[in-house]
Write a structure and sequence with these properties.
Elements lengths: L10 H26 L6 H21 L5 H19 L3 E3 L5 E3 L1 H19 L2 H23 L13
Antiparallel strand pairs: 1-2
Length: 159
């Protein structure tokens, strides 16, 4: 791992960017299905979880062939630990028909952890792109979901 921030776009970065886009799109499609079924985790939550997972997988790729087992363990620990922090964001609102809140915030925390690890690896291009994807997801997902008449608690199809 280099000790400086790499501002250059390397040949492998483009492939990783494509993978990040595909992960976010795949998660978003699944999330759209879950939203339509009235489930609390919708487009944004699923897209962010898929993006975060892709980021955590991209990190060892960014590290290159010199990846050490200790670094992999650190990344695993961060991914697991942030899951517990994210769980603290999720709650069921007893005043609003027991609806679940905070799933997208928890997923955003998980993606943010992956961005932090990627920043530690020094890839500025991937950090900027993944941050943009994350913002696009958290801004666009509510608009997509609110355009549809389906709402959590009123399934439109079978689970």
């Amino acid at each position: 791992m280099e000790s400086r921030l790499d501002l250059a776009l390397h040949p492998g970065d483009l492939m990783i960017l494509v993978r990040l886009v595909l992960a976010a799109l795949a998660g978003g499609v699944i999330g759209w299905n879950r939203f339509r079924a009235g489930k609390p985790a919708g487009v944004g939550t699923h897209a962010l979880v898929a993006l975060g997972a892709a980021l955590f997988v991209a990190i060892p790729v960014q590290m290159g062939p010199a990846t050490h087992e200790g670094f992999t363990r650190v990344v695993q620990g961060i991914a697991t630990g942030i899951g517990f922090i994210g769980a603290g964001e999720i709650f069921r609102d007893p005043d609003r028909d027991h609806r679940i809140h905070g799933l997208t915030s928890a997923a955003a925390l998980w993606v943010t952890a992956a961005l932090g690890v990627l920043a530690g690896c020094g890839s500025a291009v991937l950090i900027v792109a993944a941050t943009a994807f994350t913002l696009l997801i958290v801004l666009a997902a509510p608009h997509l979901e609110h355009r549809d008449p389906a709402r959590p608690g009123r399934p439109t199809q079978s689970n």
